[in-house]
């Protein structure tokens, strides 16, 4: 249970980590999952299954915790991700970290992946075929981590997971499903950088995710007053 002192940290500061963010803290289980992910990562590093391998500097496999309850799925690596091998480290990545923190989570305790592991040239959207070719890796990652919730960042991520979804505006804010795991579609942070007004929609969507995790959590009951309300932490999402 969070301490009263922690719960008094209010609006305007990052919320304390009020959601239990890991499905398990069992050291043995963490080790098993890390090793399983590492084997997939090795295969990705050698992968030449689609043309995206040709121009990559590094493959971009994942970031975060192997026992995270929340998995964020983005589109594909950009220039900074290609250079570092870490997803969401550019400007959009910094905004994603703010969103994660505003939900009361830490980047270290969520799981972050992309639909394709190699950078599409010029930061173009990966093709459906490229996403399909890379999908077995995505499926394996989710199978190993077993998140309680997936957040699809942008339409390509949702299409890769679920199939034909015509638009974000008509499908965001409501639950969809991938192999029994609830999926919330919302706008990609890169879109928010170009369209800051859409941040309020993302915050609404993340509040639904937050509430789901709160209700599904095991253990200590946390008071309603600690649940972020829509708009209460929009200042945290300033770019
Ligand atoms: S994007 Fe995926 S399928 Fe294509 S080369 Fe990279 S790892 Fe392989």
Could you describe the 3D structure shown?
By secondary structure, this protein is of the alpha/beta class. It has one domain (21-217, 230-237): 3-Layer(aba) Sandwich (Uracil-DNA Glycosylase, subunit E). 40% of the residues lie in helices and 11% in strands. The protein contains nine helices and six strands. It has helices at 4-7, 27-46, 79-84, 91-102, 128-145, 155-162, 168-171, 189-194, 199-216, and strands at 63-64, 70-74, 111-114, 149-153, 175-178, 181-186. A six-stranded mixed sheet has the order 1-3-2-4-6-5, sandwiched between helices. β5 (175-178) and β6 form a beta hairpin. α2 runs antiparallel to α5. The longest helix is centred in the first third of the chain and has 20 residues, at 27-46. The radius of gyration is 17 Å and the shape is globular. Bound molecules: iron/sulfur cluster. Iron/sulfur cluster is lined by residues 44, 47-50, 52-53, 59, 116-118, 133-134.
Integer average pLDDT: 86
The small-molecule ligands in this entry are: iron/sulfur cluster
Proportion in β-strands: 5-15%
CATH superfamily: Uracil-DNA glycosylase-like domain
> How many whole angstroms does the radius of gyration measure?
17 Å
Which descriptor suits the 3D outline? globular
What topology, given as strand order, has the largest sheet?
A: 1-3-2-4-6-5
Distance between the termini: 32 Å
Please give the domain count.
1
Could you estimate the helical fraction of the residues in percent? 40-55%
Helix count equals: 9
Number of strands: 6
Derived structural class: alpha/beta
Spell the H/E element sequence.
HHEEHHEHEHHEEHH
Which stretches are poorly predicted, pLDDT < 50 over at least 5 residues?
1-17, 218-236
